[in-house]
């Protein structure tokens, strides 16, 4: 399993920070390597699961409060057995496993906090009709199907390190009759915007293809640095030790004493960003205008 650094490895410890660590973006340490494909909603989960108040709330709920059972093909059915009002305060349908990383966790964000642009319309399928979307999705993706407490259906589509959350409309995917699926983009009129959304969604269908080399966008790199800086801070490490974790000891040692203190400033900004997201700012990654006050 690909776990986040706070799960797969202990927090970096003083004295061994630089051990077996090279430049993160060509690294031999896989602790954070899985994050390069995470979407903004999955990054939000990475920061939230490091929030002590959230962890305290989650610890009061038993995993048995949520039912999991396998269905046909690669579909897992999930249904909360009871209301989890505390989870809703954090913008979640229920409390996922806090040990699971941004790819593996079954994180369903509420529609109020994370309004979805992409939805799936489910309709009847003819006896001999083939639905390519359904066939490809069930063949290449792991699908988590949630029926919430008021009967609405939602999907997590997981493939090739990517996760897409969509809501279902029309017929139930669980109906006994054959169904067809149609992708619907709500509230998007610009053609370029539609193409970008569909391109991102299509990434999940690369599951069976050869693994591609990581391509770190500037935004994802900044989020990854913020996450590492946060973990190092929680472990009691200094800014210099954090730089060694991110860039490797040789590069950090060379840059640390340079005039202007560029790397020192970068580490301070990374930690500030990480603390902001952990303390409620994660909602901004979901499109909210301001952080949750009770998370600070």
A few lines on this structure:
The protein is an alpha/beta fold and 296 residues long.
The share of residues in extended strands comes to: 15-25%
- What does the average pLDDT come to? 84
Helix content: 25-40%
Radius of gyration: 21 Å
Indicate the structural class.
alpha/beta
SSE pattern:
HHHEEHEHEEEEHHHHH
Sheet with the most strands, sense and barrel status: 7 strands, mixed
Shape descriptor reads globular
Note the total helix count: 10
| Strand arrangement in the largest pleated sheet | 1-2-4-5-6-3-7
- DSSP E strands, number: 7
- Spans of at least 5 consecutive residues whose pLDDT stays below 50 are 1-29
| Alpha carbon gap, first and last residue | 31 Å
């Amino acid at each position: 399993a690909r776990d986040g650094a706070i799960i797969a490895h202990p927090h970096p410890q003083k004295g061994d920070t630089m051990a077996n660590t090279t430049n993160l973006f060509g690294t031999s340490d896989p602790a954070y390597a899985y994050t390069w494909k995470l979407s903004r909603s999955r990054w939000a989960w990475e920061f939230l699961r490091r929030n002590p108040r959230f962890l305290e709330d989650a610890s009061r709920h038993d995993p048995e409060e949520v039912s999991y059972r396998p269905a046909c093909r690669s579909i897992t059915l999930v249904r909360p057995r009871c209301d989890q009002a505390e989870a809703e305060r954090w913008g979640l349908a229920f409390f996922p496993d806090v040990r699971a990383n941004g790819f593996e966790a079954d994180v369903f964000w509420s529609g109020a906090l994370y309004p979805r642009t992409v939805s799936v319309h489910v309709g009847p399928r003819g006896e001999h009709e083939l639905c390519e979307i359904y066939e490809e999705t069930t063949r290449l993706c792991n699908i988590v199907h949630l029926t919430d407490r008021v009967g609405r259906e939602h999907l997590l589509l997981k493939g090739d390190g990517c996760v897409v959350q969509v809501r279902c409309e029309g017929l139930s995917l669980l109906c006994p009759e054959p169904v067809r699926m149609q992708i619907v983009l709500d509230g998007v009129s610009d053609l370029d915007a539609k193409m970008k959304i569909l391109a991102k969604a299509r990434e999940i269908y690369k599951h069976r293809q050869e693994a591609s080399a990581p391509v770190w966008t500037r935004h994802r790199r900044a989020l990854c640095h913020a996450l590492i800086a946060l973990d190092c801070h929680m472990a009691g490490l200094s800014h210099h030790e954090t730089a060694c974790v991110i860039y490797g000891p040789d590069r950090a040692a060379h840059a640390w004493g340079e005039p202007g203190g560029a790397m020192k400033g970068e580490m301070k900004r990374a930690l500030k960003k990480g603390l902001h997201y952990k303390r409620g700012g994660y909602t901004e990654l979901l499109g909210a205008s301001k952080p949750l006050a009770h998370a600070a």
